[in-house]
Protein: hydroxyethylthiazole kinase
Organism: Phtheirospermum japonicum
Amino acid sequence: MDLVANVLLAGGASPAMIHSVAEIPDFTPKTHALYVNVGTLTPDWLPAIKMAAQVANDRNKPWVLDPVAAGASGFRLAACLELLKLRPTVVRGNGSEIMALVKGSADDNSKGADSTHESTDAVAAAKSLAQTTGCIVAVSGAVDIVTDGQRVVGARNGVAMLQKITATGCSVTALIAAFVAVGPSRPFEATVTALSVFGVAAEMGMATARGPASLRTNLIDALYGLDRASVLRHVDIRNM
Ligand SMILES: Nc1ncnc2c1ncn2[C@@H]1O[C@H](COP(=O)(O)OP(=O)(O)O)[C@@H](O)[C@H]1O
Ligand SMILES: Cc1ncsc1CCOP(=O)(O)O
Ligand SMILES: [Mg+2]
């Protein structure tokens, strides 16, 4: 939650981390987008998550799902599949998470929050998930893949060391939610752009990083200082 909230602030958004059913009816209507992350899911939290998604839907607000470690346990997978029925605007996971959602069963070989698949292994799964759910589906990795079930785009910014900082996946999903909040009528473009901007900031931060801890700090600084010219100079988005 620390990195997620700080990435959102650096990107110009205004985060509030809310868990309680007591607060969701008041809080969710005030937002421009809802971000649901199941990273530390418990049975107690699930009703609040569902309530928030329902309020977002009732108010026509976009919402974004990060199915952290979806294949690691039956409980988590079932929860993610229930949440998909509430039709998030965007789902962003790593290769293993997106493949688990499509397979619909927990994976004995799951590594938990980390992926055992390349994003490119999950292109067919991502397209299928987008077609069956109507969501924009993004798969992160060396190439970030975004699909609406028809179009498939690859965004190639980023650095491998992001995998050595916990919650960078969670943070880029949060940034997607922020970008979708700004451009709710174009969630596909907002998703690709958020992934690219996060990747460009990571590349800039990597220039002076000495390891994951300094990259984490530099990433927040680079995102905060990023301007349009730098994004346009570095961004690498291609049709796949
Ligand atoms: N090998 C890589 N090269 C460049 N960027 C990467 C690489 N692997 C992951 N990333 C980037 O790291 C961020 C988190 O992605 P990822 O590690 O796939 O998510 P998660 O933490 O959910 O598993 C994304 O911005 C992604 O583009
Ligand atoms: C380590 C960990 N455990 C539960 S959630 C979480 C963070 C996962 O974040 P990310 O998917 O961005 O690496
Ligand atoms: Mg993740």
Q: What stands out?
A: Residues 94, 114-115, 140-142, 144, 158-160, 162-163, 168-169, 172, 198-199 surround adenosine-5'-diphosphate (ligand 1) (CB under 6 Å). DSSP finds ten helices and seven strands in the chain. The radius of gyration is 16 Å.
